[in-house]
Amino acid sequence: MLSYTLRRLAFAVPTVLVISLIVFLLLDMAPGDPTASLPLTIPLEVREQIRISLGLGEPVLVRYFKWLQMTLFTEPMHILAGLTGWNIAPEGPRILSWQTRSPVGDIIVQRVPQTLWVVGMGYLFGIMIALPIGVISAYRQYSWFDQVGTFVSMVGFSVPTFFTGVVFILVFSVWLGWFPSMYDTTHVVRDWNSFVFQVKQIAMPVAVLALYNASQISRFMRASMLDNLNQDYVRTARAKGLGEKAVVLVHVLRNSMIPVVTVIAIGIPTVFTGAIITEQIFRVNGLGDALIRAIYVSDWPMVQTITFIFAVLIVLFNLIADVLYGILDPRIRYD
Length: 335
Fold this sequence. Notes:
- The chain is mostly helical.
- It contains twelve helices and no strands.
- It has a single domain (2-27, 108-328), classed as Orthogonal Bundle (MetI-like fold), CATH 1.10.3720.
């Protein structure tokens, strides 16, 4: 297992580097200029000096390697220094947002807690809802529970989150007045009343994301369970006198989780990068909102950095899913 993990890591590093290079070059060739938002009265020579101060006067490959060095070392060290108070932040330039002229790392640190609080809870609740629904639907195939679960999951997965979010706002915020329609990122939990307000304002975005994630994962869980329930080892376990609960929850569920682990692992990076559409609907000041705003104003340093983080997380959690295969299924060996 260790040798396999090391081999995968050795392959993952150049994969991430190639992805970062492609993303950097594509965005560098895209239209957009950091001085576009400046007043037209500013002379051209001043605009050029601003471009040079941002590092745009150097060849593209030089800028790429500088950006990569700051992404892998400078920004993480500044973030770690800010979180711990240690004096380890290196001197030198940082990745600056063209829109705010602030370091990209600082903006990401400010946005991550909102994203993890809302999107992370939506994903966690989605998994907690999907797994038992998928198991029960498969075990009681064609029952009323299976029919209702199939209908709800198909609707939840087929209807886009921007439509579901608007419906939730219309029903629960406008008509019933139960929850606020917008997320207040400045709210601080100090007492019980402020905690209740926090629960109310995250209820709708978490519900929208949980419905979408649960609909997808429950379908995979059901299909995998149905495939394993008809296997010979299940009939053998029942013939040996094992209880139905042990057969389903110990033998069938463990093997059925193998493809579901892939779906869950691939979806985890979205927790860190934010649900772009949902954050826009409920005005959640997270990474997804930062990404979409950066795209609107052609803030390529912000887009490059968030996209690179997303690529690293996808590769990392794919590796974790492969390792978990060996834990869930003893037949899988990597040596």
